[in-house]
Amino acid sequence: MPRTSKRKSAPPNSSSVTSPEGRSVSIKAKTKGMEKIDRLFNSYANNSLGMIDPDGIEALCSDLGVDYTDVRILMLAWKLKAERQGYFTQDEWRTGLKALGVDSLSKLKKALPELENEVGKSSNYEDFYSYAFRYCLTEEKQKSVDIESICELLNLVLGAQFHPQVDLLIEYLKISFPDLENYDASQAWPLILDNFVEWMREKHS
């Protein structure tokens, strides 16, 4: 007859075993967080489209206290991986807000400075720059952007990052900016600079 072992079995390792109750709480917390994200989405979404449209984004900007053309909104679109300019789908919204770790308007507002810092990292900035260009391609099979739009985009995307360099370039060229009164078109300027000056004068005329 085999002997019965009197050794007591080792208690389960509490650090590696999660109780059903613990798993249930975790699932409920995630579900609740997603529900809050969805409620925030629905407060700005166009019900007939099932997505946030330009009017919804404008309302979101107003509630966040930022301008519609603020670069941080473009950064938010980048974080959401939004594919269509001026529109956020629910899946994009969920993915982006989950990545930001926010589920309310107040948290989203607080996350904007952190998002700026994230984009400012060299490892992310190139991707953001490329995304910004693609985001401006509003037509199917469009591969280029008109001069006025690209100038606005470059000012938006590069402005905060490269203002010191731009200021030094203007100082070096000895061109009064933004009035451009002392610009001499007869000088041997690169064509791109001539085009830029012409665009600036038309813009401010």
From TrEMBL:
PROSITE patterns in the cross-refs: DCUN1
Region annotation (Disordered) ranges: 1-27
Source species, domain of life: Eukaryota
Record domain DCUN1: where: 32-205
GO biological process, one term: protein neddylation
GO terms of molecular function: cullin family protein binding; ubiquitin conjugating enzyme binding; ubiquitin-like protein binding
Pfam families the record matches: Cullin_binding
Database matches in Gene3D superfamilies: Cullin, PONY binding domain (1.10.238.200), EF-hand (1.10.238.10)
Composition bias, Polar residues: 11-21
One term under GO cellular component: ubiquitin ligase complex
InterPro entries: DCN-prot (IPR014764), DCN1-like_PONY (IPR042460), EF-hand-dom_pair (IPR011992), PONY_dom (IPR005176)
PANTHER family: DEFECTIVE IN CULLIN NEDDYLATION PROTEIN, RP42 RELATED
Biological role stated in the UniProt entry: Neddylation of cullins play an essential role in the regulation of SCF-type complexes activity.
Name the UniProt record assigns to this protein: Defective in cullin neddylation protein
Organism phylogeny: Eukaryota, Viridiplantae, Streptophyta, Embryophyta, Tracheophyta
Gene that this sequence comes from: LOC111299339
